[in-house]
Amino acid sequence: MLHHVPNSLPVHCVTTATRLAAVTSRPNEDQKRIRKKLNPVKMCADLSRTPRNLLVCERSSFLDEKNRLSFQVEQLRFNYKVSLLLPECGSAPSHLESTLNSFSRFYLVKKLPIYELLDKDFLQNAVYQGSVYGLSFGTRIDEDNCVALMPNGRLVLSLDKDSYEMLGFEGRPSRFNHRTCSRFVVPVDLKERSMAPGSPGYRRLLRALSSHLKLQTDFLISHHPGGGASLKALLSRYDWSERRPEVCSRRLSDLVCPDLRSCDPHSLLEWLGAADADVSCENSSSSFLSTLTCPEPTTTLAAALSASVSGLLLPQDVQRLVEQLRCHLQQEQTASWASVTVHGFADGPVSWGDEEHGVLTGGENFYNLLMFQDHTYRLHLATGPQDGCPP
Amino acid sequence: HVVQKLIESMPGRIAEVLKKRAQHSTKFTEAYLKNCIQQPTRLDVKNIVTHKAVILGYSRPKKDKTKRNSKKAKGLSARQKRTMKVFRIKPEHQRYELFLPLHKLWGQYIIDLCGGLKPTSLCGETLILQLITCVLIVTVVRSKCPSYVGTTGILIQEFKHVFKIITKEDKVKVIPKKNSVFSVEIEGFVSHIYGNKFELRSSERSAKKFKVKGTIDL
């Protein structure tokens, strides 16, 4: 079972007394793109400081040539789950179904020694081509040692104090250490000249990983379509299994839905999470399980489709899905909007780009794209306490 | 002289007896009086002069210090040591192969001393600590500074805060003891030395008992 990532923002984020909003806008002739950074700080009598969550909201249009959506989608490299919500849709349309089923396959390698990632052939065929995504599986970012291999040739090791002291390779303390340095990050750029095979830096790292600290974890590895052959040599030496991303879909009936254009971001995300988790927003007086309500003003949808894909998903596949959804919105007249939520791994060493990621109270790093028929969209990017700012 | 007149008038034999008695009594009187008067011994000049030596003045003969010091080894002051560079090993002596036989010899000593160094032997940690003075192969296992980790070599000199190690490539490396953990292998037994607790001169260490105080965390 892969990591479970909570689908909705934590509730404390919603009930806030004050909000600090920094608004920067670049007016365009056609469209206005407003970017809001909301940093809710809970002012409570008994808590002086609570860990912050960061939510970045953006409104733009696909027709605007300055929109950065593709860049932003590309930056979240390790995606765990993609969930869709389509209104007025009984079952998945065929082209969407085929897109969901055509997400790239990935491999799970048991007990891979990390020095194997420095193998010359592997570097030559896979890493230098820029087509490999790798993430350690079953390791918790705040307890164990985690490894991430990114397509730009960077290998990131997130180690605890004892492992770092034994490894003997230069790194830096984590940004999220409070007073004592208990976590260290070792970023290695494998494409740099100093790390070329045979160079002193390369030999030192190899020696460190193979004799000083014998790092060995389960590893999830994936590649761009067509690059499968490059991994074969590496995989053949160890116990590996090919996995397909899990697809599941559900039909929702009588779904209460808010006015999506005017709804405020927090309540919107809360509602989306409730819909995805199949939590009713009725808030009836007899039920004490949940007090979540749908933001006013509401409409009721007769039918809606909720689908999700989970596994080690590549940003290119997500991009393709977004394009397909745009086409679907243009073709179908009944559907006026579509929502896609993409979650990153809670236990990965990196979240967006090369930014360090950590888990304090929760390791959420996700974004939600709400698309409308007139080519406009709302994008919300959210991270947890131990994260940098999303792009 | 009334008595004398009486004695002269008496016949001859009685006068002789009275004269003897008079001589006798004077002798007795003298002796008796001497005994009565106490004579302190220090004023008894005759006794003093005949038996004892008299100190005429206070001057002790000077002890010959130089003679005594030549038996003790001369020490050098710190300044002299620095100028003479006694503790520097010259480059031509800095070769790994030269130290290897010494290392083997020391290993032999240890085996002889501990009788095989079995786990059950009474060779405790204190003994091992005293034996780790020099010429053992030392590796840095953990360190706060990553560049020290992995250096291996024969320990040639030990200072208060620093180990001097010669590696196989004939390079002398100076590794501070602080914030590092060293591992020493003696005949198959690997011991870890925590450098933070080891910052003593080796001469002091042989006398010191090690207590478990503080943390061994770096």
UniProtKB/TrEMBL annotation, chain A:
Molecular function as annotated in GO? ribonuclease MRP activity; ribonuclease P activity
Q: Name one GO cellular component term.
A: ribonuclease MRP complex
Q: Which domain of life is it from?
A: Eukaryota
Can you cite a GO biological process for this protein?
Answer: endonucleolytic cleavage in ITS1 to separate SSU-rRNA from 5.8S rRNA and LSU-rRNA from tricistronic rRNA transcript (SSU-rRNA, 5.8S rRNA, LSU-rRNA)
List the protein's name. Ribonuclease P/MRP 40 subunit
From TrEMBL, chain B:
What compartments host this protein?
Answer: Nucleus, Nucleolus
Q: Name one Pfam family in it.
A: RNase_P-MRP_p29
Organism's domain of life? Answer: Eukaryota
- Tell me which UniProt keywords the record has, alphabetically: Nucleus, Phosphoprotein, tRNA processing
Q: PANTHER family under this entry? A: RIBONUCLEASE P PROTEIN SUBUNIT P29, RIBONUCLEASE P SUBUNIT P29
Quaternary context: Component of nuclear RNase P and RNase MRP ribonucleoproteins. RNase P consists of a catalytic RNA moiety and 10 different protein chains; POP1, POP4, POP5, POP7, RPP14, RPP21, RPP25, RPP30, RPP38 and RPP40. Within the RNase P complex, POP1, POP7 and RPP25 form the 'finger' subcomplex, POP5, RPP14, RPP40 and homodimeric RPP30 form the 'palm' subcomplex, and RPP21, POP4 and RPP38 form the 'wrist' subcomplex. All subunits of the RNase P complex interact with the catalytic RNA. Several subunits of RNase P are also part of the RNase MRP complex.
**What protein name does the entry list?**
Ribonuclease P protein subunit p29
What organism is listed for this UniProt entry?
Answer: Fundulus heteroclitus
